[in-house]
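Assess this one:
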Amino acid sequence: MSQTSAGQAGDGFEQLAGSLRALSGWRKAATAIGAGACGALAMAPVYALPLLAVAFSVLILLIDAASASDKPLRRAFWTGWQFGFGYFLVGVYWMAFSFFVQAEEFAWMAPFAVTGMPAFLGLFTGAACLTAAAFWRPGWRRVVLFACVWALFEFTRGHVLTGLPWNLAGQALAGSAIGAQTAAWYGAYGLSLITVLIAAAPAAWAGYALPIKRQLLGPIISIAATAVLFAIGAIRLVAPEPAPSPETFVRIIQPNIPQREKIDPGLWRRNFDRQLALSSEGLPDRGRIFIIWPENGAPLINEAASALADMEAALSPNAVLIAGAVRRAEDETGKMRFYNSIAVTPHTAQGRKVVGFYDKHHLVPFGEYLPLQGLLRAVGLAQLAPYDDGFSAGEGPKVMKAGGPSFAPMICYEAIFPGAIYPRGERPDWLLTVTNDAWFGDTSGPRQHLDQARLRSIESGLPMARSANTGISALIDAKGRIVERVRLYEPGRIDAALPGKLPRTIYDRVGNWFFFALVAVFFALSVYSGGARSRGARS
């Protein structure tokens, strides 16, 4: 680069940064919202990863402006909230589609959901930017500081009020297994920390009165760090791994039943027969085969003797049917409770029997139960579950065994929670997820849901069999690679040997402590490495 062109580029950087810092009023708000929306496009199904760098670099410069104002914390909060509103408006718009399945009853709630959820989640991004502004430092220090605070507030978002760790920044790398392999060390929250560090690095020296080589150092670091992250992933993917089990097979069923028909009790038998037909053809007569039906694939199966008899007639004795189910039971007061469950039904000496249940413990607010039920019902709200009091929660994560390798079951939403997929100290041989993404249509939601499932396999070093009514059914190996899938809105099945499991990962051994250690180190580096607090960068 010539001296003249370098100088022009440097002037361009300074002018762009200066223009962003000078924004106010609706222009600043629109820029923050637009930057957040750009960041969301790095997630499935677009995977425009460079936009994540644009989004976070712009946010850093907007916080620079807030930090230099007479009300730095207030301005930083609102800038962060606006960014979060745009990010989640684009990232979770698909939630509104569930209200149109029973449009006559719930459609009026859709506009409130599509704006109310981003407005609420934006409180976390606003609080993150406010906290970062309170410790703001010049140059690269503010980028490191920001990444630490952002990751901590993502962790908070994943736990407060039952938690919603949807579209963590690191999830952008889960579209392919290669970029997400380091989650085996520090989990999804650690992956978010590194992702934000890399994405915000272009802003490290942007807008400072520095030589162009210094200003370009941030983008160069971002590109180089991305290359290193993917190189680590490539090395891990080619490392030796256990072969698939020669005696354990899975058959994953995706019936693709329209949601209105799936929840209609009058069609339960027809839906059951459709799934049984997909399950029974050409079963291997050796080893152990696990047949997996999606969420609510067989409601009240333990009460349906004729259905169990039909399963016994259609399935070979070496087959274990694991079906999403609804079960009901009286509690100690005699009140009938309903549970979103998984039923395990092997062949026994007495025929096909339900020998165990797993009850979903992490329920979806407003979908499966109504928080503050008395108050919200008084204003006309109801949960989507077709039971007066919604579903009741199960006792917690569980490891199950029905002949052959043990497995940890999860139902739908439960697969989005890092580190909460089986009890500590009870590592199974594989993971099983049943879900029903038909609620959310042909949107980004089912695709984002699959990416989160892939992260659970990488974190744990365990393969996963994922059955969706429709969504994306998949067999995922222990490194997060998709062995085979059935695409959205396609009926079908997957037949394959169960992939092998890896030795315990670092994340499986220490949980989120590695993530917290990284945050502590980076935070100390940003705060105590010299330089006085800057109320905005100098340009």
Summary: The first strand starts at residue 248 and ends at 254. Residues 532-539 have pLDDT under 50 and may be disordered. The chain has two domains: 8-238, 248-510. The CA atoms of residues 285 and 318 lie 7 Å apart.
